[in-house]
Structures are given as structure tokens and as C-alpha cells.
């Protein structure tokens, strides 16, 4: 089996370790947030880590009401400007901890006395050293170019931090069950293997979700792009109505994340429109009745919490991308033209 597949399957163990490993750091960060009266959050990241940042934006704004912006690192590096970051929590997210432009955002924040936090898989990395606090993914070496376990670890650490920050004991309890439930998600392995053959010749697709799971639509599209070379494009269903829907034609593959919860009504309405246009729906949901609307259905564990279902949705997407690459005769561990660590400035 491929390195990518093995790393997908390691995620329950990785998330289980995350919980206890970072408790002291999370306690320290939350104490400083409350003491300093943080009024805004800025997050710097690239690639897969940027999708974890989008997840972070949603969960922070939903649970704390504090506005979150995604940094434009080029402002600091390419244009040589500095943005006011005083009284902000500034978070850098990077699997390797070597993202030079994201590190520059942290450096600028430190000069201004902001509270800085890094989320990386290497505690001795430049970003981890530069930030005041470090949240350690502790995934072990991720050998596949396509990030899987580091992505879910990043989301998990951010969710733990925000749950503690907001005092949300219910979320903390549900997060504690994510590793076990993710193991349940992997029972779809056989289903993925059987159904992915249908998409052997797929060259393009759309990936749709709404709300918090929009971050997962983007991450899923990226995984499909880099491992299978399919031209996958992610949209929030709310945006898909505004123009992109015109591209839908008969048999166009569309992956739809439709978990129970606040986003379900809107996503279901989009699914109905897609069925009318005879699109090829690939449904990922914990609502079996929605599966009947699609040509393929993958089940995730029961939850109506939009802050939790992203973990299960992305696990299915990772399996789908990996198996599709193999079905196409490709090596998902070493996509053409890509390296594990990409440094931009």
C-alpha cells in the first residue's frame, strides 16, 4: 500500500496524541488571550495549511465572535509593508514550519508585541522557534507529498484551542471522540475501493460544501488535483449559484459534502438543482436518504456539529483521492513537479 494511504490510516492515533501533548501550551495561550483582551486574529499559511486556516476562521468566529482575517504574506515580503497587528492573536500554520513568508508575518507581529502562535509538525522549525507559543502536531515524518495527517492534526489543535478559549465543554467532549469516530469512517475503505473505478477517466470535477466544511471542499479539491491531476475546483454552494453553476452539464462529476447540521438545507437545495441538470453526484453525508440522490454515496459518522464533521469528511476525500490516483495508474506519494516542502517568499 502507498505511504499516503498508510498516513491516512494513522490519523486516529495522531489525533489521540495531540490531545494531551499540547495541553500546557493551550492553557498558556488561552490565559494570555483573556488577559490581553485580544480583539482580532490574523492567520498566515499556504497550501493545505491555508485550508486549516479557513477552518480556524470559521470556528473562532462562531465560538468567540472575534473577527479573523487570513494574512496576505506577500504584503510583508514582496511589497515590504507592515500591517498593524497590535492586540491581535497571530497564528502561523505550516506542516514543515519553513514557510518563509508566513514566518515573516509572525516576525512582524512579534515586533509589535502581538501574541504569536505557530502550529507545525517540527518543534525546532523556524516558525516554531519564532512564535511565542507552539502547538505540536506530533505526526511523525509525513513521507507522502500529499499532506493528510498533518492537516487533520492542525485542525484538531486549533479546535482544541478554540474550545478551551470559549469554554465550550460540549465541543471538548465531542473532540475527544473524533479519533474513535474517524476509525469508523475508515470502514468506508471497501466502498471507496469498489466505487472509485467508476471515475477512472474523470478529468474534471467540482467539490461543494457550505460553512465550515467549505475548508474541506478546498482541501479535497487540492488532494484530487495533486494526486490524480484531475482539474478539481472547490466552491461554497452559496457562491456556486453566482455564475459557476452555468458550467454544469450532463454527467459532470460533483463531490458534495452534505452532513447533518446548519449547512444541510442549503446543500440539499443545491443537490436538487444538480440532479435536475443530470450531474454525476458523489455524496458524502451522514444522511443516507441523501445518498439516493447521487451515483455514489460515502457515509460518515453521525453528528450535526459543523465543527466536527470536517474531520470525517476529509478522511473520505483523502481515501477517494488516493484510490483514484492508483486506479489511474499514478503514484499519489510522488506527484509530478511537486516537493514535500514548498517555500515561497
UniProtKB/TrEMBL annotation:
The keyword Repeat applies. GO terms for biological process: carbohydrate derivative metabolic process. GO terms for molecular function: carbohydrate derivative binding. InterPro entries: GlmS/AgaS_SIS (IPR035466), GlmS/FrlB_SIS (IPR035490), SIS_dom (IPR001347), SIS_dom_sf (IPR046348). Residues 29-171, 192-335 form the SIS domain. Keywords: Repeat. It comes from the Bacteria. This is Glutamine--fructose-6-phosphate transaminase. It comes from Anaerobacterium chartisolvens.
Amino acid at each position: 500500500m502507498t505511504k499516503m494511504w498508510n498516513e491516512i490510516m494513522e490519523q486516529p492515533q495522531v489525533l489521540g496524541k495531540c490531545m494531551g501533548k499540547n495541553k500546557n501550551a493551550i492553557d498558556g495561550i488561552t490565559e494570555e488571550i483573556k488577559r490581553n483582551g485580544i480583539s482580532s486574529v490574523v492567520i498566515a499559511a499556504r497550501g493545505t495549511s491555508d485550508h486549516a486556516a479557513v477552518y480556524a476562521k470559521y470556528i473562532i468566529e462562531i465560538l468567540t465572535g472575534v473577527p479573523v482575517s487570513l494574512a496576505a504574506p506577500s504584503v510583508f515580503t514582496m511589497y515590504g509593508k507592515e500591517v498593524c497587528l497590535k492586540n491581535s492573536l497571530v497564528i502561523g500554520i505550516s506542516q514543515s514550519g519553513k514557510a518563509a513568508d508566513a514566518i515573516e508575518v509572525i516576525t512582524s507581529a512579534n515586533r509589535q508585541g502581538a501574541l504569536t502562535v505557530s502550529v507545525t509538525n517540527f518543534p525546532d522549525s523556524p516558525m516554531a522557534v519564532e512564535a511565542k507559543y507552539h502547538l505540536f502536531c506530533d505526526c511523525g515524518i509525513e513521507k507522502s507529498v500529499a499532506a493528510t495527517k498533518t492537516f487533520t492534526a492542525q485542525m484538531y489543535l486549533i479546535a482544541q484551542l478554540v474550545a478551551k478559549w470559549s469554554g465550550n465543554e460540549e465541543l471538548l467532549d465531542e473532540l475527544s471522540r473524533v479519533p474513535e469516530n474517524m476509525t469508523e469512517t475508515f470502514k468506508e475503505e471497501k466502498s471507496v475501493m469498489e466505487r472509485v473505478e467508476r471515475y477512472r477517466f474523470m478529468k474534471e470535477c467540482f467539490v461543494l460544501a457550505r460553512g465550515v466544511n467549505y475548508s474541506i471542499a478546498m482541501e479535497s479539491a487540492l488532494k484530487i488535483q495533486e494526486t490524480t491531476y484531475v482539474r478539481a475546483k472547490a466552491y461554497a454552494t452559496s457562491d456556486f449559484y453566482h455564475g459557476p453553476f452555468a458550467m454544469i452539464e450532463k454527467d459532470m462529476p460533483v463531490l458534495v459534502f452534505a452532513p447533518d447540521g446548519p449547512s444541510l438545507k442549503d446543500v440539499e437545495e443545491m443537490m436538487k438543482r444538480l440532479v435536475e441538470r443530470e450531474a454525476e453526484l458523489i455524496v458524502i453525508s451522514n444522511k443516507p436518504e441523501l445518498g439516493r440522490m447521487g451515483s455514489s454515496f460515502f457515509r460518515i459518522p453521525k453528528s450535526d456539529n459543523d465543527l466536527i464533521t470536517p474531520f470525517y469528511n476529509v478522511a473520505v476525500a483523502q481515501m477517494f483521492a488516493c484510490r483514484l490516483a492508483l486506479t489511474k495508474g499514478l503514484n499519489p506519494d510522488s506527484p509530478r513537479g511537486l516537493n514535500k516542502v514548498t517555500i515561497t517568499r
